[in-house]
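The instructor's notes for this session suggest beginning with a concrete chain rather than abstract definitions. Hand out the sequence below and ask the class to guess, before any prediction is shown, which regions might be ordered.
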Amino acid sequence: MEYIFTERAHLMCPNMCFGIVMCINKELNKSRIEDTVKCLSLAHPFIRALISHEEKENRFFYDVKEVSQAEINIYTDNVLNVDSPEIIAEYERITSRDFDLFKEGMLKISVWPSGAKTIVLMVFHHLLADGRGALELSKELADYYALGKQPVHAEEKLISSVSEFPENSRLSFISRLLVNKANKQWEKENNKLSFEDYHRFADDYLKSDKVKHNLSVFQTSETDSIAEKCKREGVTVNDYLLAKLFTEDKIKRIVMAMDIRKSLKCYNPGAMGNYSTAFSVELNSFEGDIFTVAKKVHEKVRLISSKPSSLYLVLQCYAALDPGLLDAAMMASRGRFESKAAGFIGKNFFHMDKAEGHSITNLGKTESEVIEDAYFIPPASPAIKKTLGVLTLNGKMRICTSER
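After discussion, reveal the predicted structure:
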């Protein structure tokens, strides 16, 4: 039994799904796909899991079953490539309703033939994995499907307590004061949001929450050129992309996701679950060219990532808040659940009351001898108006934008 800790904030929050699309250099074979997913589920128990609830402690946990809970849809009509509109249409179909995680798994896979190749769409719920974990699982699927390479079994161990975080990452005095006040107010309200009530709300919410997805691609030569310019200017490609979003959209604040698995003692290589954090990068001016802005971004990111109290802020909030209050934050912020405490946290801590934010999740650079092309479809968090999902495979960088 594994108890959810950091992922709980993603449980009762709509649109916390995301996708990996890839073209594998192997022709479609239905039984091979099914065998591959079965093999992956044996190596990664969370693919065999549903979510269950322990009433006494109000804890949600991964209820691991004997067989895979992944849903597989295999289509017979050829698609031209990963850019084919059928793929995004399928992603939007799958994410047009809330996953009932008490009855269905956290992974849905759709497959198409593409001549002598196979196109795969993997849709993940955030409780199964973060973006980095999803990418590694996708590569394992491709390696087994095309080469017969066995995935390595990974023992699952989630973040179980604040002791996993650095000592100097504790919330500031003001933040602790506000969290403690909200927790006390929540206790006085003596209220509780059930998953069933949330699930009905989420399904209703998703019917009217329309998200568009757009794709752009930088060929290897373009990616290399950008990387070379960034190197000369002393910034990263991610700094450049943030600067581009700042200047093009004329915004002052972007939420950036960061992988922290290498910093956590509990993480086992290959494990599923969520090992990422997020923080805000803010700029007051965009004077100069894009690399001038990128240098400002670089310094901001460097300062935040070197300061545990800033880097772990969101995770420390998750840990300090009453779990039931965290469950209710989204609905209360939208006026669909009566709680001043949860409404305050949802609005003022997580900005869930309006979709006005901008964010970027960059899964970085990776290589594969069997994946010809791939991209990452980022989640469309209710707090975010526009999200960029970035993935660079074999030198080609693709950006998928999820935008309301």
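Then share the key points. The CA atoms of residues 67 and 275 lie 25 Å apart. The mean pLDDT is 95.
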